[in-house]
Write a structure and sequence with these properties.
Number of helices: 15
Radius of gyration: 20 Å
Shape: globular
Number of strands: 9
Largest sheet: 8 strands, parallel, barrel
Strand content: 5-15%
Helix content: 40-55%
Structural class: alpha/beta
Length: 367
């Protein structure tokens, strides 16, 4: 079964009906199994699991230490441009929003790189709005060649591409891909993406697989929590990750749980993933996918991020700016989203160490 068929099958599943029948015994069985299946994941995401968070946390912590040790990798984002051809109703970069767009020149990219490198960061994630016209693959490849002088690991979060384009970027020095489905609910997906190439649900759903087939070392996926039912989105995200893990065994698969923050355009989330449910979702991910990475961004508050550190996180951002080229010049650009944890890299490093974990700046050297 391919991922399209798998998601389609579960989209018609009666989640609410199933959740209403989950028992304490189902939760106990899910926690006792060495290898969880889809129904164990459903049990752990259900309201019945709320009173088992401590047991889930103990198992998640043990699995994380067993598979990853007590280390957490650091990364930092760099926005190259904010041009976009899509009209996503929830995004500050939407083509519907009127503001002066910007795009870094190669010299500006290098200047930002030098500033970021002074913080000690070695893993860089570069982002653009989703405009092939304004930021074509060749521009991104040229940027990566400049950035690789400063960073041993450069990954991308840009518009979906063809496999050959990803291969070209891999040859330029890209080693990882982040691509969010935003929502796995087809109906909601159509509503929140009213115009632009991003309307193609199926093409986006297949994008992580194209990245893996192109040879990227790691692929990070997830949903944007706030658009549709959080439990269903979490279940679909985890299924997608499991599918990729089983099919592309040489590719590291990881998950993110971004919650919607305030953005330009005034969109307000229709669904809320509260802190307690956020923790439950992350723990369920770790138990269902013991070998998957879990990434935590600065969308979350500092004190909340610190509490999550021992529960399954393997990768965390720090010192983030979400405006174009915000590291070496004063930028009045519109941010893609508001950062909630504004601590410096040094402050985040100290917080990781204070929790008994080792902050890792570099875990990868390309030969």
């Amino acid at each position: 079964m391919n991922i399209q068929d798998m998601i389609e099958k579960w989209n018609s599943f009666d989640f609410e009906g199933y959740f209403s029948k989950v028992t304490d015994g189902d939760i106990g069985n899910a926690l006792a199994r060495e290898h969880s299946d889809e129904y164990d994941l459903l049990a752990l995401l259900s309201p019945a699991a709320d009173k088992y968070l401590e047991q889930m946390a103990r198992k998640a912590r043990e699995l994380t230490v067993r598979h990853f040790g007590r280390v957490i990798q650091l990364y930092i984002p760099l926005y190259l441009a904010n041009f976009c051809s899509n009209s996503c109703v929830y995004c500050g970069f939407s083509a519907r929003n009127r503001f002066e767009r910007s795009k870094l020149s190669m010299d500006e990219i290098e200047s930002n790189a030098a500033e970021i490198a002074r913080t000690g960061m070695k893993h860089l994630l570069i982002l653009t709005g989703e405009s092939r016209k304004d930021t074509p693959p060749e521009y991104i490849a040229d940027a990566v060649r400049r950035l690789r002088k400063y960073f041993p690991s450069v990954s991308i979060e840009v518009y979906p591409m063809e496999k050959d384009e990803y291969r070209m970027l891999k040859d330029a020095g890209v080693d990882g891909l982040t691509i969010y489905q935003e929502t796995y609910d087809r109906k909601v997906y159509s509503e929140v993406h009213p115009a632009g190439r991003k309307r193609d649900y199926a093409y986006r759903l297949d994008t992580p697989a194209r990245g893996a087939e192109a040879g990227f070392r790691w692929v990070n996926i997830g949903a944007l929590y706030g658009l549709a039912d959080p439990a269903k989105e979490a279940f679909m995200s985890a299924l997608h990750a499991k599918y990729l893990q089983n099919k592309y065994i040489d590719t590291e698969i990881s998950l993110s749980l971004p919650r919607m923050n305030e953005a330009e355009g005034g969109y307000h989330a229709k669904y809320t993933l509260g802190d307690r449910d956020y923790v439950k979702t992350m723990l369920a991910f770790r138990i269902f996918l013991p070998r998957a990475g879990i990434t935590l961004s600065t969308r979350e508050r500092a004190e909340f991020r610190d509490r999550l550190l021992p529960l399954g996180i393997t990768r965390i951002s720090a010192g983030s700016m979400t405006t174009v080229g915000g590291y070496d010049v004063h930028s009045a650009d519109v941010p893609q989203f508001e950062v909630s944890d504004c601590r410096s890299v040094d402050e985040v490093v100290k917080a990781i160490a204070a929790n008994g974990y080792e902050p890792v700046f570099q875990d990868w050297v390309a030969l």
